[in-house]
Amino acid sequence: MARIRPMKFVHVVYGTRRFEQMVHWYQTVFDAKVQYQNPVLAFLTYDEEHHRFAFANLDVRKPGTNERDRRGLIGVDHVAYTYASLKDLLESYEDLRAQGVEPYCCVHHGMTVSMYYADPDGNQMEFQVDCFGSNEEANAFMASPHFAANPIGVEFDPDDWLARLRAGTAPSEFLMRQTHEPVSPIRGSFAN
Ligand SMILES: [Fe+2]
């Protein structure tokens, strides 16, 4: 059987201790628009995708240092790729697991269902599927009280979902985030 591949590259997330400056820089350079921002997180886009960049404010998430330039937490947190369907995402999960590659975290963000992987160097990546059929709906969700109540997401069990999908549950049953609690922890890295 043919291997399932991601359909497209979609976004990059940075950890930063220059949160406001970073948001401003990406607004300036990419003519990007802020989709959502709170003191910890900001999501920006410059095209039809619901977010092309996100920034995690390390001064809030990991306070206690004035270190602003040491690479590590500062820098790329993860890059993200979108799959064509929930079935592709979950079938690929099973294919990869058979080859010894497993996600360290599975989160239903609301606008995406996401599985996080790390390569052998610890570079983190998100394999996701869009929850909404249009960017307008995704943008509306990011402006909704449900997103403001939980801009991180809710964890899910991919084995349970794959079994239910194969048993005939419609993908739409999974894609609409029904619950907005408990909030999944923000990961500093796959290691914690
Ligand atoms: Fe992401």
Structure overview:
With 192 residues, the chain is an alpha+beta fold. 29% of the residues lie in helices and 27% in strands. Strands 2-3-4-1-5-8-7-6-9 form a nine-stranded mixed beta sheet, with helices on both faces. The longest helix has 13 residues. The structure holds fe (ii) ion (FE2). The site of fe (ii) ion has 6 residues, from strand 1 and strand 5.
Distance between the termini: 35 Å
Going across the major beta sheet, what is the strand order?
A: 2-3-4-1-5-8-7-6-9
Order of secondary-structure elements: EHEEEHEHEEEHHEHH
Low-pLDDT ranges: none
Alpha-beta classification: alpha+beta
In short:
This protein is α+β, with helices and mostly antiparallel strands. It has helices spanning 19-30, 58-61, 86-98, 135-142, 145-149, 158-166, 171-175; strands spanning 8-16, 33-37, 41-45, 53-57, 75-82, 105-108, 112-118, 124-130, 154-155.
Features:
single chain; 192 residues; alpha+beta; nine-stranded mixed β-sheet; 7 helices; 9 strands; binds fe (ii) ion
Helix-strand layout with pairing:
Layout: E1 8-16, H1 19-30, E2 33-37, E3 41-45, E4 53-57, H2 58-61, E5 75-82, H3 86-98, E6 105-108, E7 112-118, E8 124-130, H4 135-142, H5 145-149, E9 154-155, H6 158-166, H7 171-175
Parallel strand pairs: 1-4, 5-8
Antiparallel strand pairs: 1-5, 2-3, 3-4, 6-7, 6-9, 7-8
Helix pairs in contact: 3-6
Residues 11, 13, 54, 78, 80, 126 line the site of fe (ii) ion (FE2).
